[in-house]
Design brief:
Elements (H helix, E strand, L loop, with lengths): L2 E6 L5 H15 L6 H18 L9 E8 L2 E8 L18 H9 L3 E9 L2 E15 L9
Antiparallel strand pairs: 1-2, 2-3, 3-5, 4-5
Helix pairs in contact: 1-2, 2-3
Length: 144
């Protein structure tokens, strides 16, 4: 399955750049039907990473890993903060809606796990990865 990675600096334009990257990759892989949902979810995860992981390792930024198959995508945003995200109880008009949006758009197909990111691949480094899946899962399973 094709993999694409992007290093994301902790900058105000990072969510937009990540959206553009995801949009380009998914269009190139002929996954146009899920582009809008994927761009929205990536924007939420990168924004969360920029806001919540900013102090974890100054200037470290985040990493984005996309793994596509002919019918879908699994996207993971890695950062250096070890605190796993938790969906807030209730509605807050000031913020905290990112995971609610993610959960709704993906139909609950998202999660978080401890582990860092190096050159586009999960590693044993500190930090975490927050992932989501859209489209159909690859019936053949992961490449060996």
């Amino acid at each position: 399955m094709p993999e694409y990675s992007l290093r994301i600096p902790p900058h105000a334009t990072s969510p937009r750049i990540a959206r553009d990257f995801v949009t380009s990759v998914l269009h190139a892989q002929r996954l146009g039907a899920i582009v809008d949902d994927a761009a929205l979810c990536i924007s939420e995860l990168v924004t969360n990473s920029c806001v919540h992981a900013a102090g974890a390792a100054a200037g470290a930024g985040a990493g984005l890993l996309l793994v596509t198959n002919p019918a879908g995508v699994r996207a993971t945003v890695f950062d250096t903060d070890v605190t796993l995200p938790v969906m807030r109880e209730g509605y807050d008009a000031e913020g905290g809606r990112g995971l609610w949006i993610l959960d709704s758009v993906t139909g609950g197909r998202w999660g978080a796990e401890r582990g860092g990111w190096r050159a586009g691949h999960r590693s044993g480094e500190g930090g975490k990865g927050v992932w989501f899946e859209l489209g159909a899962l690859d019936p053949s399973g992961p490449d060996e």
